[in-house]
User: Fold this.
Amino acid sequence: MRWALVDGWTIAQRTLLHWRMQPGLVIFGWLFPVLMLLMFGALLGGAMEMPGGTSYYELLVPGIFALSMLFGLEGTMTAITTDAAKGVTDRFRSLPMSSAAVVLGRCIADMLDSVVTLVVLAATGLALGWRWHGSLLEALAAFGLLLLLRFALLWVGIFIGLSVRNAQSVTVIQVAIWPIGFLSSAFVNTSTMPDWLGAVAQWNPMSSTATAARALFGNPGGSAGSWIGEHALAGAVIWPLLMVVVFLPLSARRFRNLSR
Assistant:
């Protein structure tokens, strides 16, 4: 395990070096969720009726937090696929290093990037008037749930990146990712949706994390009407753990059996 972590950190440093050489792409990745926050806040804020006259950003900011954990996943998939297609992955596999280091290193680098993304988003939210109303420990727990979701989604992205044949295929998958993110409680309470659509949105892992984060931050926007809606905190833990349990072993197996 120690060598796997050491080798994984070495591969993570390679990714960080690539980002340092292309800072524009990294900065855009940090600012894109900010753009989404500003755009949807301006488009929907005036039409949303919030309880007690609170700002729409009280509901929107935690939703964008959760949605930002999905953003950039196509970059992970593309990087993994490109390395495999160019033979870089095969070179790593020929070295005396942990077989998990390549995918683990990418995961470590992307998690560091996600931390920066949340910091930038939180600073923007605070500037727009969003606040958390609970304790600092509850706020940290909310950010922990968001990063747990990101960790789980990364393993889904890594598995897909190892499974597709070329970077062009990632574009097709990216088209399917966006509806998954938007069909959630990120922008509105699921109670405002038609019953069948609200039920689908509530069972979206994004909704569980967004609703749980709002509860921990003390922001409005809780969902009810189903078990998953009333137990969002449990869902925010169970969904990511299920994804990790399924896709981490699949990614490791796919990497060991990789043949291109």
